[in-house]
Every structure is written in structure tokens, then in C-alpha cells.
Amino acid sequence: MSLGFLLRDRGDAVIWRGPKKTAMIRQFLTDVLWGETDYLLIDTPPGTSDEHIALAEQLLTLASTTRTTEAPTTSNQDSAAAQKYQKNNKPLLAGAVLVTTPQAISTADVRKELNFCAKTCIPVIGVVENMSGYSCPCCGEVSNVFSSGGGKVMAEEMGVRFLGAVPIDVGFGEMVEGVRKGGQEEEDGGGDRRDKWR
């Protein structure tokens, strides 16, 4: 779901102040018919702006009001009631995955976002370093276009889990943009190259 889907012209700029952004985020979370979802991924812009504050407040509010099922007693932990309780009481906010590039200017922003998560009681799942080198489409060798390892160092310093590094991959970019129909792997071993950083 995106605000872009609601615009008459996808090229229109949305020039909104904080209160209007907050109201739209609240409406997305409470009024959209999401259906049966295992996970709902929310992609946010960098920083700790109005969008992040509104999301944190709304998700934490929803989390505190949706746990309405009474917990089963110890004697019936394996019963259907226990299974229903576990299903209905999954954490509404599983946590945040923070994405950085290796450069110091990016890791500095992510440090602020980690502090934001701590202050708003959002669990941090871990950190991913994006654009970590360039994966050659011919041989698969990864070369460092920028600095490398900044995300891992920052994660260790902040005491959070480092989930991995993702290089720039032309094939992956084409797949995301829909150039490679259906996300099919080419016969040139592109899938093998991507396995190196999975």
C-alpha cells in the first residue's frame, strides 16, 4: 500500500505537514483491509521524522489494545485454546531491520535510528549493509566501489546483530524493475553469484 496509488497522477508531489502525514499513516494501519497476513513489511524513509514517530506511536497503541484473548492455564497449554491464543497474540511489532550503506554518513544516520528504536521500545532485529561492493555480472567477483564493512562495525559497536551485506547486483536490479520477467534466473549462473551474499 502506498500513497502513490491514491494520487490521480503518480508524478504529483505530496506536500504535507506532520499532522496530515500522521493521519494518513493511521488510516493505512487501521482502515486498510490487509486480510490474513503473516508479516506486514513497512518501508520507511531514512531518518527519524514525523513518519517514524507516527508509525511507532500507532503500532505500539495497536499492540496494547489487540491482546484481548485470555491466556490459557498451564494445564491446557497443548490445547486448541493455547494455539488460538498464540495465533491471536503474536507480537504486532516484531521489530525493525535497519539498512545502511558502508559510508560513515549513512552509519551515522542509522546510529540515530537505533537510538530512536531504543527510546520508543521498538525491538531491533538487526542491521543490513546494502551496496556493499559491486558484483560483476561476468565473473561474480565483488569489488568495493565505496568503503566496506561500515555496517558491520557500527552494528558491533551498538551491540545489535549484523544480518549480512548485500552487494550491488545488476541482475537483481533488473529483476526488481521487472526487466527479467517472473524473476527467472538466467542460465549464466546468476543465482549462484547471489548465493554468495545470501
TrEMBL record:
4Fe-4S is among the record's keywords: no
Claim: Iron is one of the keywords in the record: yes
One MF term in the entry's GO annotations: metal ion binding
GO cellular component, one term: cytosol
InterPro entries: Mrp/NBP35_ATP-bd (IPR019591), P-loop_NTPase (IPR027417), YlxH/NBP35 (IPR033756)
GO biological process, one term: iron-sulfur cluster assembly
Record-linked PANTHER family: CYTOSOLIC FE-S CLUSTER ASSEMBLY FACTOR NUBP2 (PTHR23264:SF19), NUCLEOTIDE-BINDING PROTEIN NBP35 YEAST -RELATED (PTHR23264)
Name of this chain's protein: Cytosolic Fe-S cluster assembly factor CFD1
